[in-house]
Amino acid sequence: MLIKLPKASDCHESDVTPESLYFSRRSLLGGALVGIAASSLPRWASADDAARYADVEAGRAPNWFAEKLPGTRWQVVTVKDEAITPFKDATHYNNFYEFGTDKGDPAANAGSLKTEPWSVVIDGEVAKPGRYALEDFMKPYELEERTYRLRCVEAWSMVIPWIGFPISALLKQVEPTSKAKYIRFETLQDPKSMPGQRSSFGLIDWPYVEGLRLDEAMNPLAILAVGMYGRELPNQNGAPLRLVVPWKYGFKSVKSIVRISLVSEQPKTTWQSIAAEEYGFYANVNPTVDHPRWTQARERRLPSGLFSPNVRETQMFNGYSDEVASLYSNLDLRKNY
Ligand SMILES: Nc1nc2c(c(=O)[nH]1)N[C@H]1C(S)=C(S)[C@@H](COP(=O)(O)O)O[C@H]1N2
Ligand SMILES: [Mo]
């Protein structure tokens, strides 16, 4: 993300960067094809759901995921008239600082992340706290496909078909007490498998932490994802369990979650701790409130290259105003950025 990084970052949309050269001609062509495929697809699951997107790399799904996948409700939320980002771009242009700060680092390094076995702790202000093996944690939930825009605070964006379940379903299971006002998420801390946690990038006080107000978490658009593009999450995208809140800047969507806590106070989040004047708790996508060092009025939709930068106007709440604007009717969004 754009802070005073030790090395140059690539995120100003006006910059010509080495990363923009990354996008191959193949992925640019793929973008057009995938867009057509997505809108003409049936809603039922089939053996080759992954094949509904061009060039999806097969994964090695854990048993619990393979067993649940056929029951997935496909295309519960879609994005009209915008192409789904090619799988190659969504999996090779990532922010996951635990694996390095360059966009290609997570794809190169996240193979060391061991996602099986995985456990999730539920604690804080809940009637039913506990520590669950992921396969047990997942048992109550039916999977849904949700295709959302993802808008990074660095002014690039993608369209990604996630597979997951609403946080509201989790809250129903764990039963927050009347003191619970916020939900806090924590990423795995494991310097052995996460080189970024043992490197010189000392700005971050690991583990990565994010949070939502409880009413935000209850919004039907807020999900926990376990898959994308018809398969389980690749490690670099936050396997095996991550948050996705599409109306907020991407940094809210914390990856590789090991702990979910219901709390009474607003949690201190990672990017707030690093640069509170640049990255707020709310982080709602808002084209009228610029980042102190660049405009948020526009974004580069990936794949974006030298000759087709693919710039578009950023939408209020990333295009989800109808669903979420009412959450903020009493809030000054200029102060609560
Ligand atoms: N644990 C953790 N979660 C994280 C990040 C990170 O560095 N560490 N980066 C965030 C940022 S800035 C973005 S834009 C999204 C990127 O998600 P993607 O790589 O799946 O597109 O993940 C978010 N979640
Ligand atoms: Mo981001």
TrEMBL record:
Keywords: Metal-binding, Molybdenum, Oxidoreductase, Signal. Binds 1 Mo-molybdopterin (Mo-MPT) cofactor per subunit. It catalyses: L-methionyl-[protein] + a quinone + H2O = L-methionyl-(S)-S-oxide-[protein] + a quinol; L-methionyl-[protein] + a quinone + H2O = L-methionyl-(R)-S-oxide-[protein] + a quinol. This is Protein-methionine-sulfoxide reductase catalytic subunit MsrP. GO terms for molecular function: metal ion binding; molybdopterin cofactor binding; oxidoreductase activity, acting on a sulfur group of donors, quinone or similar compound as acceptor. The keyword Metal-binding applies. The lineage of its organism: Bacteria, Pseudomonadati, Pseudomonadota, Gammaproteobacteria, Pseudomonadales. SUPFAM superfamilies: Oxidoreductase molybdopterin-binding domain. Belongs to the MsrP family. PANTHER family: PROTEIN-METHIONINE-SULFOXIDE REDUCTASE, PROTEIN-METHIONINE-SULFOXIDE REDUCTASE CATALYTIC SUBUNIT MSRP. It comes from Pseudomonas libanensis. Mo-molybdopterin binds at N94, Y97, E98, C152, T187, N237, R242, S253, V254, K255. GO terms for biological process: protein repair. It comes from the Bacteria. Heterodimer of a catalytic subunit (MsrP) and a heme-binding subunit (MsrQ). It holds the Pfam family Oxidored_molyb. The keyword Signal applies. Its EC number is 1.8.5.-.
